[in-house]
Amino acid sequence: MTLCTAWLRKVNNNNELVFATDSCLSAGERWNTGIKIFDFHRKDCLICFAGHTYRAYPLIMNAKHLVMSNPTLSNSNTSLPLVKDALLNLFTELTDKIYNLSSGENLDETRGLANFLFGGWDYQNACFKIWHIYYYQQNKKFLADEIFFDDSRPAFFIGDNTSDAAESLLTMLRDNKNTEEVKLDMEPFSVLTRISLDDKYDSIAGPVQLAKVYRSGSSEFFGVIWPSSKGKPTLHGQEYNHHSKPFVKFINSDNASIIQEVLPDSITNLNSKYTSNHSDFIEACYNKNIRELNDLDREKLINIFKELSYSASLNNDTLFLPLETSTMEEGNG
Questions:
Q1: pLDDT of amino acid 27
Q2: Residue among 1, 7, 15 at smallest CA distance from 172
Q3: Is the four-CA dihedral 35, 41, 46, 50 of positive or negative sign?
Q4: Mean of the pLDDT values across residues 100-106?
Q5: Where does the pLDDT of residue 181 fall: very low under 50, low under 70, confident under 90, or very high at 90 and above?
Q6: What whole-number distance in Å separates Cα of residue 7 and Cα of residue 222?
Q7: Using one digit for the tens of pLDDT, what is the confidence trace for 38-72?
Q8: Nearest CA to 76 among 38, 130, 40, 123?
Q9: Where do the domains of the chain lie, and which CATH numbers do they carry?
Q10: Is the peptide bond before 233 cis (omega within 30 degrees of 0)?
Q11: CB-based contact 233:242 (threshold 8 Å)
């Protein structure tokens, strides 16, 4: 089983559609390392699931193949409601073909053992759209309810213990509320983290997974340092060592901030023997506030320092002497 959530995150005057879930898979046995958020051939939408893995995975894999192989559905200019309708028809068609059930199993109940959150940035309507997809026994087909967020329901949860999660979120927002309008940041992520770490909820477990869809029509998956800021990097529920972690942004599970690699705020005694090919760029970076570097320059500077530090270490040299360092933790955005 599981607990999944989606919400619109307010970033200055902009919005992001955020998906988050635990990593618990159930298929007779339990795994706490399962991928539960998926993208498509088009990057403007995501899907996640709650329920039984053996029901959800075949449907999602077929959905990914359908979108990838269909030129209309894979085109980001095609409206998301059309994609949603195609998924409903596909899920209904596939589950209609289930056979050879065990004695006593109910076919309609079996068809509905998984439900989904599907959504993203709809280019045609210039807005985010998201739906709860589920099997409706009375009509014997999959239906989708469009989700609209408001102050009474700032995030939508599916899976187990959704009432506890929703109440915990509203309590957190009431305690922190400074304005009349609810503006969600990463509070649902924090709620999901607490529940996933609470032994009281045995069907919700494993590292939290998180992904976003942006108004640019692109999506991004994030890693999470789990189970605390002193833990290990995880991505899609899988644990990594710090030296082998994937090249994605990582989120501190303690406070939901993005963890950036350390750059010294200032440097002195730069060893010119190693920096001659990069001295102009390094000097330009440190002539401005190092914390205000754009992402491209920051990534380039980090890679330069890694390369040059390795070269210096081979010769038992020092590249530079740091005067001050910072963990460079920033609000997720």
A1: 74
A2: 7
A3: negative
A4: 84
A5: low
A6: 16
A7: 999 999 999 999 999 999 999 999 999 999 999 99
A8: 123
A9: 3-258 (3.60.20.10), 261-326 (no CATH)
A10: no
A11: yes
